[in-house]
Amino acid sequence: CERINMNQFRFGTGISSYQVEGDRSGRDSCIWDDFCLVKGNIKDKTDGNVAIDFYHRYKEDLQCAKELGIQDFRFSISWPRVIKDDGSVNEEGLDFYSDLVDEIIKDGMNPVITIFHWDLPSVLMKKGGFTNRSIITDFIHYVEVLSKKLSPRVKDWITFNEPQCFIGIGYQKRGQAPKIDCDYITMAKAAHNVLLCHSHAYQILKKDNPNCTVSFVNTFNVPLPYGRKKENMEKELSDILFTVPNTKEEFYTLSIYSDPLYLGSYPEKYLKKTGISEIIEDGDMDLIRKSKPDYLCLNIYTGTYYRNNKEGKTVIYEKKTESEKTDLPWLLRREKSIYYGCKYLYNRYKAPIIITENGGCYHDRLLKDKTVHDKERCQYLRKYLHEVKQCIKEEIDIRGYYYWSLFDNFEWEWGESKRFGLVYIDYKDHLKRYKKDSFFAYQRIIKKSRS
Ligand code: NOJ
What we know:
Layout: E1 10-14, H1 17-20, H2 31-37, H3 54-68, E2 72-76, H4 79-82, H5 91-106, E3 110-116, H6 122-126, H7 135-150, E4 156-161, H8 163-166, H9 184-208, E5 213-219, E6 222-225, H10 230-242, H11 255-263, H12 268-271, H13 276-279, H14 284-289, E7 296-299, E8 303-308, E9 314-316, H15 336-349, E10 353-357, H16 375-393, E11 398-404, E12 423-426, E13 432-435, H17 437-449
Parallel strand pairs: 1-2, 1-11, 2-3, 3-4, 4-5, 5-7, 6-8, 7-10, 10-11
Antiparallel strand pairs: 8-9, 12-13
Helix pairs in contact: 3-5, 7-9, 15-16, 16-17
This protein binds 1-deoxynojirimycin.
1-deoxynojirimycin is lined by residues 16, 19, 161-162, 299, 357, 404, 411, 420.
């Protein structure tokens, strides 16, 4: 098999503040604290108050990342740990991130920071969260504080993680915070304000360090061809991916965020809808155009199969096999989603790709001898990475892959019971950490690829 030179390729892992940090008393409240307080919101009744206590154990945890051999360490910053409810800076919180960055660099890794990974300060939610344009002023203040403290040590920034979830799910009263019910136009406003916040952040970070990269993470469910003559279906499936559905479902899809960011304008069909053009103020689109993200950051997990029926129409193929199932109903192991997802996106936007998230959720068992034989996760990892290689062979410009997640952690509405980690967390015994087989599998892959 042909060997691909992956010496420049960046392997990494991801975590996010609310999901791992704990130390609830060291920061003000966020919308996920509020969400967890409501009975029935979190399936196993856990919350992020202690999480995996990364806040106090980060040095030890970074040793583990170092041992894994990754180049990029992706983490996020908790907005309410840095900015207090009254708008002043929480120096202790800020120092924590500064020390964390120093430590990552000292351990020979590169910090990749996500500025917003869902934990919005509760005070800002009281003002309407992203639906209120005044959030831009608050976000600018937050980013200026971060940039002043961490630039130029931090070279790679991501402004937002998955608006498809925090807007698309959170603002239409589905299973995630803030679980409010917005009408169509209000959601469109929220989406637009996210893009403006990104653009302002981009300008601030580049002014402070012109050599840094500033990106934005999107996620999507990939339409996959099923059956024979797959090539014939690619164009149509790519159109399905980028076509704007005519409902609030749209805020869960890709192009209303990614078209303005990477092509400079909203999809035409979207713009034609009543009320949308009024949201856009003079200068907004120019600012967005000047703030094109450096990378196409993609969180790719799964896809939906389509097939041609007898009438020659393309329809969803619902069947799932046992081997595709994981421990989460929405997550089927469909590694081709990497191949087609990267291909469709690269063809449309022509920007270098980083797969900022991809990972498998399985029910792990910690054995008496403290080992975890997560065979399925090892297989998941190998299969998805094989598709990354295939893309690179076909000259799709993928620069990095970050496994989600380094540790088991608080999986949002599912709580602690769903595990994605390469490292097992024993919630019943002082949050002790145990490397799973998948940790060693990823370690070997990284070593081999870069030798
Ligand atoms: C998406 C999110 O960014 C992350 O926070 C979450 O834990 C994983 N995917 C798995 O669902």
